[in-house]
Design a protein that fits this description.
heterodimer, A: 490 residues, alpha/beta, Urease, subunit C, domain 1, TIM Barrel, eight-stranded mixed beta sheet, 28% helix, 20% strand, globular, B: 446 residues, 19 strands
Chain lengths: 490, 446
């Protein structure tokens, strides 16, 4: 929704809120909270014991072990950290390799940006993990990665350990370029219809199947001890598609209309793979039975509609109706702001379609965890799972709930009180840097003026130089705003 | 006396029975109603337990605890329910924008930079499917503002045209209209050195000096338009020797320079807001600030000049990387604390129904709940000079009323009854229709 605003002034990066550098305690007890476990009901006045980043115990009568750090959450609500099944945060630059119709060689994991402030902002909205997707410019798009929002850690420590990688597919208006004009003088890229979108995907998998056959043949003969074999030539475009057919890579398919969803189910059947999630899937409610039968998940918006033709039949009952028909459904953001309010978006499925509170919570916790294959480690408050938790001051399904703390691997990565306490320090630090910058600019100016005066005093020694015009600057230091395209993926 | 009965735990079946008395997407034509038994939040005084609201000929006739129900009134039993003024979304594109990406369905931004003579009401489509979807969520009246694009990032011109206020029910715009012209929309020019170019899909940079020159030119031209309008008005009035052909653009600007029509200036950055306020003060025109992402930085100025703010969705990201993460959420409470009148707004079409969500989030971040209610029900009416007709439940006002099963700002609250212009109005809409249609789809054979 909001155009992404990037500050050109690199200086500002220094002021992004900082995660605690304090020693991270290995044993934590969160006590006296209402615990929304998602899998086994709510526990009033309950506690969660965390050891070495994992949930060690959950219950009503836990005592703090010696040396444990206690988080008193009296009157507060603890829920599993929110999992955003469709995100484009933490990406350096564009999310679209929009050149070829099949861009499976591109990998979002190669361009993770741990300094993206949206990581912190979404963390402050209770999000602990996100499916970072390539854009939707191509029928077969780039490779994708699941991350934990470990703000302050390097890019190498963002990926969710053990989570299967994915690949983005896209159907409908975006890959057929309906809504963005082809620049003048540029030949439009194939495909231009939904018919062509199917053909591109099928053609790519026909190639991938042949390629796989060559490798299988090579590996078989090699394993029998055959000598002097020449291996097939590596194709980085087809490798990820082979992984899809081998069940080693999930397909996350951007889609809107019922017909194109059914199309991809047919193509997947033809090549023997499963679509892991249909993303957006705004007409999923029309064919929920078929999606459920195909074993695919549906990851949708709460109430977005009418922003383009293929979103005109979108209804806010989508998540509830898919759930009712047996589809594992989730509500996602596709947008750094929307991610900050996913608890609110999930609650809408109670109003529209009458989901229970627990089923509504599942839309942003356990269900996306299942969709991303990380449910053994995340998505509910159960012993043995990662201590990825969000603590709210009210029931998170209420509009009045505010995140107080967010924990990942048992560490507090966001703390509202700490954030507020840091603000005045950061503001004065910024001011002193700005003053310093201003002062050095003034000094430079004065020096230049002096040098100019000197050269004017001795015109005969040096041929007089033309007066240098003042540098075009950024006015009052408040400009340099770059307006980009948000997500570019919906 | 016909009695519609629906308890707070009212089942869908009862709602269905109720809706049978209301033709789809239309209204009944009873001249009198009485809503009884509910808690009445008038927004003009304390809430009334077990209160009654009597409606006659489109207007509120009586509100109170001990009101005699007229014998000819259709009675709506609101026992266990809550009664509020309908919500008012003051900057939208409703009726002007059906499917944002399909140009044929969008009438928001005219070509050219100076179009004061254009009026939103001209092209509001009363059959837009957005209207029933929006009102079913408790929004009973809106303002459609030309040139206020939010999604496609394309400029709607500097003087974009006149915004129109209307009720979200009626067969024609003539029936729906509250006020054809409530404000002149000005998209304040920004000094922006970088912008995204859709034609080449890349960020284009321009030198500051060039951008500043363009900006100055725009402001001078705006100034020139208002000067000419003033001269035009004087010439017409006094029969001055200066000869003017009838000029629709200047004519449209006359109420602005006469101080009768406010300008709705869309601006976000601190510098732009300051410049716009300075301009309007110098020009002596009434200003309403629209969008106002950085209004929190200029509270003293806004307070001093008594400038109200219509906020773009406050569920948005902070303006800059080092802006506190919750600044957009706390901005409404800061404006309230500073004594600056403000209203929430969607600035769109499909998200108009999110209006209470924005207000509710602001409550979570410090805005008092009753002020949040005012900021979605009453304040916009005051800001746009419509408070004599709208915004509170008081005798003589237009009967735009919602009956809910709880706090209207909460995400799960349902609107049980909808009264617009004094008529019981259906909450049926495209979304519920599709839901019910596909819910009944039989299991396909495999």
């Amino acid at each position: 929704m909001n155009p992404k605003i990037l500050c050109a002034a690199a200086i500002l990066v220094a002021f992004a809120p900082v995660a605690s550098r304090a020693q991270n305690p290995s044993t934590i007890l969160i006590q006296n909270a209402t615990i929304l476990t998602v899998t086994h009901g709510n526990i009033e006045h309950g506690s969660i014991l965390i050891r070495d980043g994992k949930i060690a115990a959950v219950g009503a009568d836990l005592k703090a072990p010696e040396g444990a750090t206690v988080i008193d959450a009296t009157g507060q609500f603890v829920m599993p950290g929110i999992i955003d099944c469709h995100s484009h945060i933490a990406v350096d630059g564009s999310v679209n390799e929009a050149g070829p119709a099949v861009s499976s060689m591109a990998n979002i994991a190669d361009v993770l940006n741990p300094d993206d402030i949206d990581i912190y902002r979404d963390l402050a909205g209770g999000v602990t993990a996100a499916n970072i997707l390539h854009g939707s410019a191509n029928p077969i798009g780039g490779q994708t990665v699941v991350i934990k929002l470990r703000w302050g850690k390097p890019a190498s420590e963002l990926p969710f350990e053990g989570a299967l990688p994915g690949i983005k597919f896209a159907l409908g208006e975006n890959p057929k370029h309906s809504n963005f004009p082809t620049p003048p003088g540029v030949t439009p890229r194939y495909p231009g219809t939904r018919l062509g979108v199917e053909e591109v995907i099928r053609q790519a998998f026909i190639e991938a199947r042949e390629y796989k056959k060559q490798w299988d043949d090579y590996n078989r003969r090699k394993s029998t001890g055959e000598q002097n074999l020449i291996p097939p030539r590596r194709d980085v475009r087809l490798d990820p598609l082979v992984e899809v057919m081998d069940g080693k890579r999930y397909v996350h398919a951007h889609c809107y209309r019922a017909d194109e969803i059914l199309m991809l189910i047919r193509v997947a059947n033809e090549f023997g793979f499963k679509v892991r999630t249909f993303q957006h899937v705004l007409e999923g409610y029309k064919i929920a039975d078929e999606i459920a039968a195909a074993g695919a998940g549906g990851s949708t918006f709460s109430d977005w509609w009418a922003y383009k033709m293929e979103a005109f039949d979108a209804i806010p009952y989508n998540a509830a109706l898919m759930t009712e028909r047996g589809v594992i459904a989730s509500v996602n953001s596709d947008d750094a702001q929307e991610a900050r309010q996913l608890n609110q978006e999930a609650a809408k499925s109670m109003k529209f379609g009458g989901l229970s509170a627990n089923d509504a919570l599942k839309l942003i916790t356990l269900n996306p965890a299942i969709q991303l294959g990380i449910d053994a480690r995340a998505g509910s408050i159960d012993v043995g799972k990662d201590a990825d938790l969000a603590i709210y001051n009210h029931d998170p399904l209420s509009v009045y709930a505010v995140v107080q703390k967010t924990l990942i691997d048992g560490q507090v990565y966001f703390d509202r009180q700490r954030d507020i306490a840091q603000r005045s320090t950061l503001a004065s630090e910024k001011q002193s840097l700005l003053d310093k910058e201003k002062k050095s600019a003034e000094e430079k100016k004065a020096e230049e003026k002096k040098a100019e005066e000197n050269s004017e005093k001795q015109p005969e020694k040096k041929p007089s130089q033309k007066k240098k015009p003042p540098q075009a600057g950024n006015g009052n230091g408040n400009t340099g705003i770059v307006t980009g395209v948000a997500g570019g993926a919906r | 006396m016909k009695i519609l009965k629906l308890s707070s735990r009212g089942a869908m079946a009862l709602l269905l029975a109720a809706s049978l008395t209301i033709p789809a997407w239309s209204q009944t034509t009873s001249s009198a109603y009485a809503i009884k038994g509910g808690k009445v939040f008038t927004l003009a005084g304390p809430a009334i337990e077990n209160g009654t609201v009597v409606i006659r000929d489109g207007k509120i006739a009586a509100v109170g605890a001990n009101i005699t129900i007229p014998s000819d009134a259709e009675v709506i039993d609101a026992t266990g329910l809550e009664i509020y003024p309908g919500m008012f979304d003051p900057i939208t594109q409703i009726g002007l924008n059906e499917v944002s990406a399909v140009n044929a369905t969008v009438d928001v931004s005219e070509l050219g930079d100076y179009n004061p003579e254009l009026v939103a009401a001209t092209a509001v489509n009363p059959a837009s499917v957005h209207i029933p979807v929006t009102r079913a969520n408790g929004i009973t009246e809106v303002i459609a503002a030309p040139g206020t694009t939010s999604l496609d990032l394309q400029s709607g011109g500097l003087i974009a045209g006149q915004a129109s206020a209307f009720n979200l029910a009626g067969w024609t715009m003539d029936e729906m209209q509250i006020n054809r012209s409530v404000a002149m929309v000005i998209n304040w020019p920004t000094i922006q050195t970088s912008s995204f170019d859709f034609a080449t899909f890349s960020v284009k940079e321009k030198p500051y000096a060039d951008v500043k020159k363009e900006y100055d030119k725009s402001v001078n031209t705006l100034s020139d338009w208002l000067d000419r309008a003033r001269h035009y008005a004087q010439a017409k009035e006094k029969g001055s020797p200066a000869l003017y052909e009838r000029d629709l653009k200047l004519e449209a600007l006359v109420p602005v320079v006469e101080g009768k029509l406010p300008v709705l200036v869309i601006a976000d950055q601190e510098r732009d807001i300051r410049n716009a306020v300075e301009f309007c003060t110098k020009q002596n025109v009434k200003i309403i600030l629209g969008s106002g992402a950085e209004a929190w930085k200029v509270k003293d100025l806004l307070k001093d000049k008594k400038i109200p703010v219509v906020l773009a969705p406050t569920n948005r990201l902070p303006e800059q990387e080092d802006t506190p993460y919750d600044k957009p959420y706390t901005e409404p409470s800061e404006l309230f604390a500073a004594g600056i009148p403000f209203a929430f707004s969607s600035f769109g079409t499909a998200f108009s129904r999110r209006l209470p969500q924005y207000a509710g989030t602001a409550v979570a971040y410090g805005l008092p709940h009753d002020e949040a209610l005012k900021a979605v029900m009453l304040n916009a009416a005051q800001i746009f000079g419509l408070a004599d007709q709208l915004g509170t439940l008081e005798p003589g006002k237009l009967a735009n009323i919602i009956v809910t099963n709880g706090d209207p700002l909460e995400l799960q609250t349902q609107v049980r009854y909808l009264i617009i212009k004094g008529q019981l109005t259906s909450t049926d809409n495209k979304h519920r229709d599709l839901y019910e249609q596909y819910r009944k789809r039989p299991q396909p054979a495999h």
